[in-house]
From TrEMBL:
EC number per UniProt: 3.4.11.4
Residues given in the record as Zn(2+) 2 binding sites: 147, 182, 388
Pfam families, per the entry: M20_dimer, Peptidase_M20
Reactions this protein catalyses: Release of the N-terminal residue from a tripeptide
Annotated Zn(2+) 1 binding sites: 85, 147, 205
Highest taxon of the lineage: Bacteria
PROSITE patterns, A to Z: ARGE_DAPE_CPG2_1 (PS00758), ARGE_DAPE_CPG2_2 (PS00759)
Cofactor section: Zn(2+)
Organism from which the protein derives: Selenomonas infelix ATCC 43532
Domain Peptidase M20 dimerisation positions: 214-309
Protein name, UniProt field: Peptidase T
Length: 418
């Protein structure tokens, strides 16, 4: 079977396994039972390929090792890791994916005639470059799941290729398939890094052909709890301390221009995600984001300072807060020693005739957390577009190029070690 058809066959098999995650703050990992189905399917396939040290943890983290294939007395070749996530995103669509393979000839795409679901070219100009190509699309009732099952198909096909051809030289390769990326990177946060002893790694978890990411947000979350004083309205004067109004006062202490809807590029923000309150208690949930580490730390200090301002505004209230780091900027992990991981992406793209599109991501990947553990983990394209949407689609030539990039990165690591 041709590589392209192998990639497609794997991808279609994987997306038909429902594996949505559900946000629960990491209380239970994985957050859904369905992710175990995906992990066990891959565990079986890794066993059939003959990989070593296959382990499925109690947190649904699946790891495996493909030993190096090197000639005698070969110099050290860097050990490379590849990480992809098992879960698909929950955006209140069907968890069941019904993919369709079509040739796109331009114009609108009728995803579901029965339900009158149409991907309109006027609303989706990103379709235009793919006229004349084969696409995999949804039936309009779900996301497609190329985020991140295109990466899983890519990695598994690469392993199959390497196992099947002893002439292909490579260093040690380590694989990690993790759950719950879409709801907080909880899978990578529960990795056993003794099972991932790599010099550097890659995630394959962004969009169109050519995209490269090694800059992401530094990310954290804060929870501010305001204890007021309840009182009956008939005798509330001088007694009632309304925590709901104090929560509003607290949120208004922040710069309204530094929010997600008012920023772009590498501009950071503090996002008030929710206010939950009753007559005695209000809780404010905040997300903190900035590409620059110093500015990120300053935003954390600003939250603490605004808590003090609120306490001074109403001394009768009791205000407590917690701040937790979620992940870091991949770029902060770059050193002269590991820079090869990024340089090789651009060298491989040059050889494959792929035009790089380097993006400072306004978000994070599993690599954003893994990089905080001293393992530089940049990210490159799956080829898919419109992630987290029923209009998600995957151009088949782009999927093929993503696989070719994976193979080229493995080959380059060996070549440069000689």
């Amino acid at each position: 079977m041709k590589i392209e058809e192998t990639l497609i066959e794997r991808f279609l098999r994987y997306v038909r396994v429902p594996s949505e995650s559900k946000a629960n703050g990491g209380k239970v990992v994985p957050s859904t039972e369905e992710q175990w189905d995906m992990a066990r399917l891959l565990q079986k396939e890794l066993l059939e390929l003959g990989l070593n040290d296959i382990s499925l943890s109690d947190k649904c983290v699946l790891t495996a090792h493909l030993p190096a294939n090197l000639p005698p007395d070969a110099p050290h070749v860097p050990a490379i890791g590849f990480c992809a996530h098992l879960d698909t995103v929950d955006v209140s669509l069907s968890p069941v994916v019904k993919p369709q393979r079509i040739r796109y000839e331009g114009g609108d795409i009728v995803l579901n005639a029965e339900q009158n679901i149409v991907m309109r070219s006027a609303e989706h100009p990103e379709l235009a470059p793919y006229v004349g190509q084969e696409l995999i699309v949804t039936d309009g009732t779900s996301v497609l799941g190329a985020d991140n099952k295109a990466a899983i198909a890519n990695i598994m096909t690469a392993l199959d290729t390497l196992v099947g051809d002893p002439a292909l030289r490579h260093g040690d390769l380590y694989i990690a398939f993790v759950p719950d990326e879409e709801c907080g990177l909880w899978g990578s946060k529960n990795m056993d890094f003794t099972k991932f002893p790599v010099d550097y790694a890659y995630t394959i978890d962004c969009c169109a052909l050519g995209e490269v990411v090694y800059e992401t947000f530094n990310a954290g979350s804060a929870t501010v709890t305001i204890q007021g004083v309840s009182a009956h309205p008939m005798n509330a004067k001088g007694v009632l301390v309304n925590p709901t109004l104090l929560a509003v006062d607290f949120v208004n202490l922040f710069d309204r221009r530094e929010t997600p809807e008012c920023t772009e590029g590498t501009e950071g923000y503090i996002w008030c995600q929710s206010i939950r309150s009753n007559p005695t208690t209000a809780t404010v949930d905040l997300n903190i984001r900035d590409h620059d580490k110093a500015r990120y730390e300053e935003r954390k200090r600003l939250i603490a300072a605004n808590v003090e301002k609120l306490r001074a505004l109403e001394p009768r209230c009791r205000v407590t807060y917690t701040i937790e780091d979620t992940y870091g900027n991949i770029a902060d992990a770059v050193t002269d020693e590991n820079r090869q991981a990024i340089d090789n992406i651009y060298e491989a793209m040059r050889r494959l005739g792929i035009e790089p599109n380097t993006i400072a991501m306004r978000g994070g990947t599993d690599g954003s957390f893994i990089s905080t553990k001293g393992i530089l983990t940049p990210n490159y394209f799956t080829g898919g577009l419109n992630f987290h949407s029923n209009c998600e689609f995957l151009p088949i030539p782009s999927l093929r190029k993503s696989y070719e990039l994976t193979m080229a990165l493995i080959a380059l690591a060996y070549e440069k070690a000689q």
